[in-house]
Amino acid sequence: MRKTIALMNKFLVSKPLNLTSGPIRCRASGPACLLLLAGMVCAAASVMAATKRWGQIPCVDPTIGITQPTFSPSSVYEKPRWIWGTPSDVNKSLMFGRCFAVTHLPRKTIVYLAATGNIHLWVNSKAVFLESASHRASTASLQTYSINVTQYLRVGVNRIFFSAGSGNRTHGVMLSLDNRDHGWHTIVRTDKYWYWSQLPVAGKSPLADAATCVWRSAVALPPPRDLPPKLCPMRWHYLYHLYFQPQHATVISGAGAFSGLQSVPLRLTARDANALRPGYTGDSRLAPAKPIHLVIRPNDIKVHLLRTKNVIGWSILKMPGKSSAPGILLDFGQEVAGRIVLRGTGGDVIVGTGESAGEALDDPWGGVHLLQLHAHQIEATPYSAFRYAVLYFADGRKITLRRLSLDFTYYPVKYRGSFACSDPLLTNIWYTGAYTAHLCMQQQIWDAPKRDRALWIGDIQISGQTINHAFFDHYLMEKSMTMVRLEAQRVRPPNALPCAYVNNLPGYSGAWICALADFYNHTGSLAYLKSQHQLLLSMLRYMKKGFNKHDLFTNRWKARWNFVDWAPHLIGAPDTHAADVATDLFTCLGIQRAVYLLNVLGDKTNAARYAAWDRKIRQAAQKYLASPAGLYTNIRQVNAMAVISGVATAQQRRAIYRQILGPDCAAWKQVATPYYNNFVIFALSRLGHYRQALNFIRYYWGGMIRRGATTFWEKYDPSCPHKHAHRFLDNDGGGPSADLAWNYLISLCHGWSSGATNWLTDFVLGARPLRGGFRRVLISPHLIGLAWAKGTIPTPHGPIQIKLTAERLARVMNLRLPAGVQGLIDVKCATMTVDGRSIIAGNAAGNITQSRVVLTGGRHYVVRWKR
Prior knowledge:
The protein folds into four domains: 2-54 and 784-866, Maltose phosphorylase, domain 3, CATH 2.60.420.10; 82-231, Jelly Rolls; 240-410, Jelly Rolls; 418-713 and 748-759, Glycosyltransferase (Alpha/alpha barrel), CATH 1.50.10.10. The chain is an alpha+beta fold and 867 residues long. β27 and β28 form a beta hairpin. The strands form seven sheets. Strands 14, 15, 16, 17, 20, 21, 22, 23, 24 and 25 form a ten-stranded antiparallel sheet that branches. The chain has 19 helices and 36 strands.
């Protein structure tokens, strides 16, 4: 009998138990049933008690809980730009082109074109329009055209070319799409993502020579004030507005000039004059949009202003020995993306913004802006990201402000994911990371809303995972990943060799593949994956040519910059060895994900081809890049990538932890940004050190919050001074340089810094997709000393809901799986029950083993296990 029980226990703890055939049935009777029922009641009671303690989520994002807009405000426009070649090409005729993608055939597509001289338009190898200047009275006059190109489009990647010139600068080509779901909106506009070349033979399709022509990036100039009427349908349809007041204001100078104040959120007192960041109370970090009536009487104080192209010299206002204009420092309580809006009369107001008080006071990003108040017209600064704004009232006349507010511009998404736990700091970290990614969701998914405001795929790889976890957004993710990949393709067809790595950074091509795999795993969008099939294959061919005969990365394509991380030895110059090793390892990770995607696409031939190459470059990395001690350089970022990519052997992983990633290792004193520290915490988890990873999250990401961060920073060194931390971030804790503008260059809201949010979902809640669209999900939670944790993971089938509670000797998980999702419970335990039924009964010695149980979707489960 004992042998039979031992064999049953061995089977139960060594193999997954499939419970998908039907509901779990209790076979016990009599007292056994009563015991099981009592256990279920106790578990339910403990979960209900824990629910009362869980409280509410922190109000980090001001858009949480608001009603989603159902219309597009007319004020949100992104005007197209004039584009051309070099200044010496003004009187020449040039060819312009670019690629773009559509996921389905639109009902109607119109090209709106404005140019001078001859016009010739091609779409996907078809000449669709020809206009000769000889047919017009004047070759220099600006002409606009509306051209229906619907019949020439195809699903996936499309190419468009046009020639123009023989006159002044051209406005270029714009595409406006009549989408069945969203109405008229723009998918392509003239901007810096276009390319130009010399005009080929007249009348000849440019597609024949596109691969051999020298294509250069177009020069994008500011849009004209008065666009031709036919270009006005050009718009972005998905950005919306909220309006807020500042929470606090501090008098900087001229306190006697402020005589009227009728607004509760503002506080103007003399003792606040030198305070850089006044504290605030209350749950909401943004004040409600109450009207402000502010009267400033400068008392005939006049300051000489240096006016240059409507920009004011900031230092003139604060020059020692001169009269200072009355000024106030506004604090909105948290990082925001938008603009300062004023309405009033009386004179000039000079405005500068900054992500920190020091930046706003010393050297505002983007310069300072002169707003001339008259006739109660609305005046506003350009859009940027900031928390603070400085206003100087530079005119000697009385200035009356009837409106002073923040125009908060945001991408309207719902929080479909959630996270909360018994440690409020970790809960705050999750939502701060989500809000960081949300502010980066603008016209595309930018690296940061302040700067560079650009598509960097390394940032999107991290912020994209956060978006998947928190918002489950498809539109902006697909748009951004496609745009950044087509930028490397320029005007070449998808199956042709690209012109460069993604972002022209070798490691970022691997990041693009990883982002594509993460997006497919979360969304299950096979249609989008198919649209990227040829682009994936062409990039793989390009990446392979960057390796030498020993199957090592050598940057043979001579990419402009082999960037890895903002840290010594990893910025790609002048020391490139560590950067080359990290890029080699990142490529291994990318190829591994590419093989997975090719198998999903059914491309078995290419999957086998690149799987063979993957084995070769991994073996080469182990042979040539690892030291005799088993380390991949002595830098923690590089060794973390060796672990994540799976290149490091079991023996090397032990050496890496013992000498690099262990808690007392010297490598923790090295400089690393939140970008690569994201890979470090995932590497620690891969090595099984979850508690150390969680403690580092508290120390590192929590350290930013303890210093007042409301979004996560591009760079952070915990050793830098607490006071005026923004000044020190770009010098790796070594102190500020003489150039304040360089000190404040670092963004305090950067998408690549949101990785802690992903880790908390993946390893505390423990839910990670094993198949595209969460058709099969691994659930391996780790409370790691927490009393409780709960959260929601969005999937195409509906949300997965998890609630975890720690008991004295056991863990209880309430799990709701939507229909169509198969759950694989993977925990270390001695015994386990599912809905009261004993699944893993344990053995006589009470050994803890890795146990796996398969659960079907469409049900709620209560899982309890003992260790």
